[in-house]
């Protein structure tokens, strides 16, 4: 069965409105960067206690989602599921676009973004951050090659191999991202090896949610046929991934509660009086976990695209909440500098952090960069199959 | 490799742009004095060398000082600032201010001057 | 230094290596310090022993003040609260069982295995051969990963533009900084400013490896601790009395 790929026309009013809207957001985020870099970070909510704030939440969210968005392609070329094959090109594109957006936010929140060249020329191979720089750059190259293999007919025969390389690379990449936190021995909230696999499974869920939204929106807006077989498969998969994230969250917190040294930070997150507790229970567990699962699995809503779209959006919101709790919440709770002693003065207490508007806009700007990249590229290159109707996508589909 | 590249770029850029002639407008107080006494060659034996190579000298020196604790005065930025600062109304003018020693050239050749986002721009001593 | 640069001074200070011996008040030799042109070596390891029993809270405040004066931090105009630089501070702790209260100065502990150096992507966080942990601001991109990794919360991020820095202590917006053990003084054979601000028995500075140094001899006799010794970082700053 041959799948025909075709660029979108991209001449409608809606297309230009989308581009303009995203463009405004990107300009606003660049303005925020100029503002923050001109004044220095004192205009942000961050401090010496909360050194990574809202921009890092968005950056890591996008980077994590990026590696997950590649999964659809991997399922097709690594695990040989034919039905996902027509989606592989878009999967690679979404993945690269999300990574670009995430890295933009990460880089623009540096104290000295003008010295990015230093980060590319001076490597400390003991640093997980330095590995990540290599992993991110490598990901761009490998996925680009993978896409080329898919686009170029003569190279099609290498697609499976390139896909395997990209799949392995993305697993290492997310392990690296999770390890940024997992290896911080001094911080009770992070020092756990489970961070790496948890980040991998989070990436599955967030990446797929982004992918589903982009797929459904682009087919709806271009009025191309998109059959239920594919959509329902992706929906079910999302449900499984969301459940898996919840499982890892439970294991992480149970494991952490078991250690007396971590009981303080655990009760701070799980049963505390600060914003992190409602963010955890309502944002991450209910909005990002239970509700999407209900929307996906409830028999009455089965196959309903609006509810699947809503579920995907909720997964993303829950993901932002989860990363906020991990990154900001984990820093807000003081480190155990003097085990067995109570600190009366000079350190301790819950650090406060109120995200400033420029930080939030910078984060949203990263999302906008990802979306604008996808929008433009599907206009200029044939990423999307002309039709994903059931009989095209699934040869064995019975009418 | 990287150092070679830097030196190469510095050389090639500066041989194109290096400010020729000896009519520098704002040499700084001590440097002017030394020059009038005819002693500037004692400090910078070759003017073209220091003009072309000062980024490389400073880079080399900064690593030696910071990482190895070698605090000799030759090629130390402190010494540059010390001699090349000018005074105005009994106050030192920052060397990176417009029309001052560092900025005149750097502006002319359009290269950024990053030293003074951290380093002090005037000699420490009060006038 | 006189305003005129004397050529002979210039040559003397740059040319022939000169060695000298610095002696501190108590008559303990700080040992010969490296001549101008010689890099520091790992034959030394600078350290500090802080006896909290011999320090009053006022003493600790004096140490903090001396550091601020020496290095010029803490006078940021726009930064507020936790945004302000904080290289050394007074910490008061109470034992949960006995209720004993101790006050101590906290700063960079100059670890032998510094987590900040391990995590720094650009090698800006670094440890000199003689054990002093520094930030090379020329390479620092302001990612703040070192601040996440430091178990002692002893690093600060410069949140705003600075001017009028100390000549010997460059500092600037967007980079991370911390206690340098007054490396510019140590290289001249002097003591860190905080150690000089108080009684020489309360804060002993010196070469941990040198069997003749006061710090080495006292450490062999008295019970001392490293903060978060469980992390096995082998800190250069040691405490006794807590």
Automatic annotation (TrEMBL), chain A:
The chain crosses the membrane at residues 12-36, 56-80, 87-108, 128-151, 163-186, 192-216, 237-259, 279-297, 309-333, 360-378. Keywords: Cell membrane, Membrane, Transmembrane, Transmembrane helix. The keyword Membrane applies. It is a multi-pass membrane protein. Signal peptide: none annotated. Its main location: membrane. Belongs to the NrfD family. This is Polysulfide reductase NrfD. It comes from Candidatus Thiodubiliella endoseptemdiera. The gene is nrfD.
Automatic annotation (TrEMBL), chain B:
Keywords: Signal. It comes from Candidatus Thiodubiliella endoseptemdiera. It comes from the Bacteria. Gene3D superfamilies: Cytochrome C3. This is Sulfur reduction protein DsrJ. Residues 1-18 form the signal peptide. The keyword Signal applies. InterPro entries: Multihaem_cyt_sf.
Automatic annotation (TrEMBL), chain C:
One of its GO terms (molecular function) is metal ion binding. Residues 1-34 form the signal peptide. Keywords: 4Fe-4S, Iron, Iron-sulfur, Metal-binding, Signal. Pfam families: Fer4_11. This is 4Fe-4S dicluster domain-containing protein. NCBIfam families: DsrO (NF045797), TAT_signal_seq (TIGR01409). Residues 99-130, 131-160 form the 4Fe-4S ferredoxin-type domain. InterPro entries: 4Fe4S_Fe-S-bd (IPR017896), 4Fe4S_Fe_S_CS (IPR017900), DsrO-like (IPR054822), ET_IronSulfur_Cluster-Binding (IPR050954), TAT_signal (IPR006311), TAT_signal_bac_arc (IPR019546). It comes from the Bacteria.
